[in-house]
Amino acid sequence: MTDVQLGMPELPAPDYPAEVRTRLEEDAREVIARYPDSRSALLPLLHLVQSEEGHVTRTGMRFCAEMLGLTTAEVTAVATFYTMYRRKPSGDYQVGVCTNTLCAVMGGDAIFEELQSHLGVGNGETTEDGKVTLEHIECNAACDYAPVVMVNWEFFDNQTVESAKALVDELRAGRPVEPTRGAPLCTYKETARILAGFPDARPGAVEAGGSAGPASLVGLRLAKGEVAPGRVVSPRSADAPQDEAPPTHPSSHDAPQRTSASDPHHPAGPVAEEGE
């Protein structure tokens, strides 16, 4: 249920401190200059203000509106539409467990349930130390590595309940962890600044970005005529008769189904004649 607040209307959002405002304005002008229409810069500007406070505050939305000549209502509509923009304080590390179909059946549901218990938080909640925000998310576009966990949008593939618990324990302890592929892990604020379009200044981070993993590239390699990898699923028994004609309908899904046209005893639609 949505909380209903009664009483005096909310006062206008406060501004940033002068030194913060000056720094953000300089960054914002650099972002806006990339676009022929200034309002197109709204998405990266929301990432920019998120990199300042870890979530998009009313102050951040006021700043975006003023820089782009928009109303705060227009900015709020965008900030509340996209789930990558946080509306409340969150952790240094956003731990997202994919619970979409394939990841779920491969163990994602069990991982998410166990992490809630292990961390003592629910979906979208943050641990008391402010380190980890846990959430279930839809497809991570990494089904060939299911089940997948993402930390600040970096991949941790082929997870298990135990490996996921060890991962969040390392994050909370401040120990370095290595994503399965992609760039080294950084904090959520650092990630937000990169998403705003600013270079990742960490030594070696860009070179480590990499590309799709081997499992994702199998189809591309086959299309290029490269040697196919070994079969994962064994062919049917070698002693099966080779001259036996294949069944007309190898699957029940392909079999003809009775319809009103093929089964006159069970017609579809009204039985009575029109106008009766």
UniProtKB/TrEMBL annotation:
Residue runs in coiled coils: none
Transmembrane intervals: none
Keywords noted in UniProt: 2Fe-2S, Iron, Iron-sulfur, Metal-binding
Domain of life: Bacteria
InterPro entries from the UniProt entry: NuoE-like (IPR002023), NuoE_dom (IPR042128), NuoE_N (IPR041921), Thioredoxin-like_sf (IPR036249)
Family matches, as Gene3D superfamilies: Glutaredoxin (3.40.30.10), NADH-quinone oxidoreductase subunit E (1.10.10.1590)
Region annotation (Disordered) ranges: 229-276
Family annotation (NCBIfam families): nuoE_fam, PRK07539.1-1
Protein name, as recorded: NADH-quinone oxidoreductase subunit NuoE
Lineage: Bacteria, Bacillati, Actinomycetota, Actinomycetes, Kitasatosporales
